[in-house]
Specification:
The complex is a heterodimer of chains A (118) and B (110).
Chain A (H helix, E strand, L loop, with lengths): L2 E5 L3 E3 L4 E8 L7 E7 L6 E7 L4 E3 L7 E6 L4 E6 L8 E9 L4 E5 L3 E6 L1
Parallel strand pairs in A: 2-11
Antiparallel strand pairs in A: 1-3, 3-8, 4-5, 4-9, 5-6, 7-8, 9-10, 9-11
Chain B lengths: L3 E2 L3 E4 L5 E7 L10 E5 L6 E4 L13 E6 L4 E6 L8 E8 L4 E3 L3 E5 L1
Parallel strand pairs in B: 2-10
Antiparallel strand pairs in B: 1-3, 3-7, 4-5, 4-8, 6-7, 8-9, 8-10
Classes of the chains: A mainly beta (118), B mainly beta (110).
């Protein structure tokens, strides 16, 4: 069974950079593409972007200027960096395995709450 | 920009059937697939329908998906409702620039 586990700080300061990592088990990171999705408290889901194992990326146009994703095949993990944080970036951040044929996701991590404080 | 519109909430009684719609803002979904995700309170989403109408293993056949080209909408239908189906449901599709989620529909089973 594929499992994904997000890790990173639960609290970050406004204007700083958020760094999250997703460790993948039960599958090779070279098998698919990998997504980050977030959900502000009490609100809906927002796609942040995805990265192929090769390193090619696609980002949400509304976040593109602040987002960087990377993949580490040796550690079977991928990462997200989001810069210039504001309170609007407070959310549960999910990593997920993408399905290339559908541009959807099939397996999700449990999510990690990130709070941006002033 | 693509938007997917869902009803904010629906409710139905146990044993009944409910349908949740997802309307494409720019016309037909075309060849772009639709997925549906279930999110129970306090939990991560899980996939209940992919590729318009396919069920992942482990998802009961009470869940079905469809596309109605005439109304530019996708639908998730849940039959034989159970209290455990009470959750938020999100549709998801994409265009050339973005991956989009619908705003979500809260299903109450009462």
């Amino acid at each position: 069974q594929v499992q994904l586990q997000e890790s990173g700080p639960g609290l970050v300061k406004s204007s700083e950079t958020l760094s999250l990592t997703c460790i993948v088990s039960g599958d090779s990171i070279s098998s698919s593409y990998w997504s980050w999705i977030r959900q502000p408290p009490g609100k809906g889901l927002e796609w942040i972007g995805y990265i192929y194992y090769s390193g090619s990326t696609k980002y949400n146009p509304s976040l593109k200027s602040r987002v960087t994703m990377s993949v580490d095949t040796s550690k079977n993990q991928f990462s997200l960096k989001l810069t210039s944080l504001t309170a609007a970036d407070t959310a549960v951040y999910y990593c997920a395995r993408g399905v290339m044929a559908t541009i959807g996701v099939d397996f999700w991590g449990q999510g990690t709450l990130v709070t941006v404080s002033s | 920009n693509l938007m997917l519109t869902q009803p904010h909430s629906v409710s139905e009684s146990p044993g009944k059937t409910v349908t949740i719609s997802c309307t494409h803002s720019s016309g037909s979904f075309g060849s772009n697939f639709v997925q549906w995700y279930q999110q129970r309170p306090g939990s991560a989403p899980t996939t209940v329908i992919y590729k318009d109408d396919q069920r992942p293993s482990g998802v009961p056949d009470r869940f079905s998906g469809s596309i109605d080209s005439s109304s530019n909408s996708a639908s998730l239908t849940i039959s034989g409702l159970k209290t455990e189906d009470e959750a938020d449901y999100y549709c998801q599709s994409y265009d050339t620039t973005n991956v989009i989620f619908g705003g979500g529909t809260k299903l109450t089973v009462l």
